[in-house]
Amino acid sequence: MTQNNYGVVILGSGIAGLSCALRLAEQNIPSVVLTKREAINTASSWAQGGVAAVVASEDSFESHLEDTCRASSQSTNRKMAHKIIEKGPVVIDWLSHLGVPFTKEKNGKLALGQEGGHSYRRIVHAEDATGSHIMKALCAAIEKDSRIKIISNVEAVNLQLVHENLKLVELDDTHGNRHQIQTSNLIIATGGFSGLYSRTTSPARGTGIALAELIGCKITNLEFVQFHPTALFGENTNLYLISEALRGEGAILRDLKGNAFMKDFHPDGELAPRDVVSRAIFQKMTEQKNPYVYLDATQVSVDQLENHFPNILRECLKRGINIKQKFIPITPAAHYTCGGIEVDENFKTNIEGIYAVGECSNSGLHGANRLASNSLLEGLVSALYVASDINQSPVESNYQMTSQPHLTQQKHKQFCYQLIKSCKQFLWDYVGIIRTDEGMQFAINEIQNYIQRVDDKIGMKDPGNDLLRTRLRLKVSLSLAQSALNQRVNLGTHYNSDIN
Fold this sequence. Notes:
Helix content is about 35%, strand content about 20%. It is α+β, with helices and mostly antiparallel strands.
């Protein structure tokens, strides 16, 4: 048995999780961060657009709040949204101090991008790789801080309440060993579940949400899944994101005949809310029986493309597409989980000592649809409130980790792979951009059948972590489909064609 003194355990090493670790350290509270891969390799590193923050003199918190509420079809928790938005300038200053190389204008001021749904330019960014730059800065700061420990290559497969003030997390590592960690304060920062769709921009598969539901945390609004309108079409499951900021600089959506079509769907055209743009693209794809439409960036200046979108330019060139001259084939893809583990104004769940931050949480900021670039803002700001709340009461340094050899069975690997592959396609086909009652019920029935098949194998001796992981993913998929079927109002990202 090994013992270490850490009062807080953080599941996940994205921007929200690492920000929590650093903010806790600022209050002299040690923590341990558990991550499935190396800390730098998370969905946060893929974020391109930036952080929505009110820093321009002509902008205001009120305007940002109204844009947030409008994007969500007025389903945002206004009080919570204001509490997050007002901290935007604070976290931008903090990141700048940590060394994030935000893109600047020639006069030295922050260059602010324009994205859909925003009344003003307010997207603070680092070229078109903001998430990657932020993650590098956070990881560099953590490496210098002895109060923070990172344990990589472990994945949570079970969560238990030992008693009110003690939580037990079971983990498997890449060598097949089983570990148990006990702690009084647990922060879940594991991301959403968009990776459970066959077309997605995210690797996250809902583990944290499933574990939280397992022990009684309240889970809400799972039906609200945001589909990013523009992912570079390809055969891979994880599609390369084409930032909305490119449309903010003048790129135009065109059908297979080259016709611009967004003005037919919304007066804001390419900069309409994401749910509107995604449905419009999906409709065009269906009408023309094609798996993609085009994004025309030939009207964006060469200077803009080279200086503000170098990674998109480079990635498309790898695929033989010179976006200065050719249209980009794009498709909508599951991108962001708006619902999740319900939290209060301090990002606390209904279970004492358990917090949820980032995409796995449902703070009420996004409501039924997220405003572009509000997600990084929320992840950064949530750390402020969590650290402050934990600091209000003494933190017991009772972190304890025990390890034992565990021969993980690999014989179920192909079985699990096929189940998840089929489930991902069910979600895309029946619980995707446009839904029907019949389709959602079909998905529910199939997923329930899959869960039973997994349970039958889990009943065997030493089921192995493949089955445990698969069950968690199927449970989240089932909860998503059930939430979508139960939602009888078309709102934000949820659209059921059987509802008038």
